[in-house]
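Hey, I was hoping to borrow your eyes for a little while. A protein chain has come my way and I'm curious about its shape. Take your time with it, there's no hurry, and the full record follows here:
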Amino acid sequence: MFLEMYFPSTVSFQTALAALCTLLSIYPLLALHRNQLREPRQPQHTAWKRGIAQVITDSFGMVSNFAEDGWMSQEEVQDCADSLARNDCILCPVTIGHPKSLRRREKFLEVSLLNQSLKWVTATLAVAHCKSCGADYYPDRIVFSHLERNGTRQQRLVYDAQYLRISKHGIWVHRHIAILQERAIIRFHSGWSSFAEWLSDSIKGGRKAITYRQSKRLYIEHFSRRLLIFHEKLPEIALSRWGSIPSSMHHGCTDCTHLKRFPADLVEEGFDTIPMKFTVTARHTIAKTILTNYLDSQPYLEQCCSILLPQWPPPNVDVLEPGGPRGYVRLAVMDGKSIGHRICAIDECTAPLVNFKNGRFCKDHIVHYSSICGIIPCGQPVHTPGALTCDNPSHKSWYQAYSQRFKRLTFPGVQRVMRKQKDTNGNSSIGQRSHTFQVDLPPLEGNGPDERVVHTFRAQTVYCIQTVQWSCGIPIGWGKCYRSESLPQVLSIIDHIWEQYPSFRPGFLAYDDACDLLRHIVTQDSQSPWLTSTKFIVDTWHYIGHRATDVLCRLWCNPAPTDGSQPDLVRILEDGNGVKHTTRAFNLETAEQLNAWLNGYEAQLRQMTDVMFDFHCHVLMMLYTEITTKRIEKKGKELDDDFWEEAIGS
């Protein structure tokens, strides 16, 4: 009965289903046709309608009026078209009358499409064009001329595009394939090459394989749109050495955000059983006692006690004001991860390479240094074009030994040598991040046996990335440290992360070298807002390795002081036997947990260019944020209205 209403009785059931599918696919074209008809002096048979007839004729061999009245009501067609198509140009300014409608730019094109069933099909591509501004509307982007940039062609991504182009030769894939790639990255730490091989093996029929470049392009197209949604706009910071996550500034949960506590709260919980209580005078007495017993420098004693200790940080408020809001505190954790891309071989340069495959220099140094000897400071021209040393026999022999140093060593062999060197050197101190692989090389003429030979035979690497997250694990931002994890670089990273959000600075910031960072801030800028907004503490693991004679570290950066000076950092809990114990209020090792998660992507990141490295780091931070957010929601650790009412009032 259904077929008799809409189709002639001679039409088969398979043809009817195919016709219905075709109608669904041409709804956007029907809407564009009807929208163009609303403008004055438009023919009834527009280019859109002729294109629709062509598509139907090519698909079924039917007459060109296949989609005329009688198939479906015009209301149904309009409702579906409005939800699937963009009818007017969104770039042209709205003027009196009807907005600028979109025309057909050229004839329809046949392209290859990998659909969500992992099957290659032939699809018809229609491109809309605005005659007023010259913008071209593709299914996944809008290409237009930017007037403020000398008319250069710019692109505006369609964030909810159903199809993505992965090759300039007309190869498109369904968005579902990109979601599969995202899941493979999360679950299996898959790279572009491995995903391309898996996808090629899974394609039905195996008529055409996905290449490495197409897999990479799919990754870029998909995650560019994901970042656009995640940041509420596509950030320019995605291509820089620093990155922040604006949405994380407003995050709060029971793991990272606590109500403000006072010494009276500790006493109420049973903290008065501990004999030592906090007073400012007591802290000064302890500081002077430690300095007097262990240091002979009287000027240093006077400087620490008379300048730093009384002012930073300010003493706690002992009691809560009656009827006032309690307030809240948040704790952030920061740490470095030894991952980085390759940079210029010149020590003072941090610029990226011109050639990331086998290059050594950036664009500023490649012209001069590529034609001279790699031994610094020889400066003689290379003996033949493409060589790395001059005619000096000692330089040639040293480079030969350098290039052959790993020839017979496998990766397990390198690990055995590193373990042996560690045992020999006694390099087992607590908190040691990594160990270097030392290779014995012959002495070079003019250098002593213990002098380091400075050369440019290989590109250098970014020392580490600095990650910052809340104590619940939600990333806040990240940055690069190029030559070392120096304090000025670390300070510049956190300054940049909170530059646009000064009121969202954490109450506490845990860092493995927080005491030296605090010294650096005080000595460089005594009016820094960090000194009044944040207390710097050393994370628990590294604190046990710090010197007991460091007064600033012991009294100002203690992660869990037992003298009651920081009630926000400790909790009094009672075990099953009724015994009360002092525990830490926050998890200070979330940075280590994030770094452990990043280990699965270390091999990929080390082989990337600087631009792809920054982009991939932003993607990983976004994925880790979403994973952690789901875990927090699953455990029901969100902050409710009662918390905020008590923290900041109604």
Observations:
- The chain has a mean pLDDT of 78.
- The CA atoms of residues 487 and 520 lie 7 Å apart.
- Residues 1-87 form one domain.
- The chain has four domains: 1-87, 89-234, 248-277+329-338+463-648, 344-404+450-460.
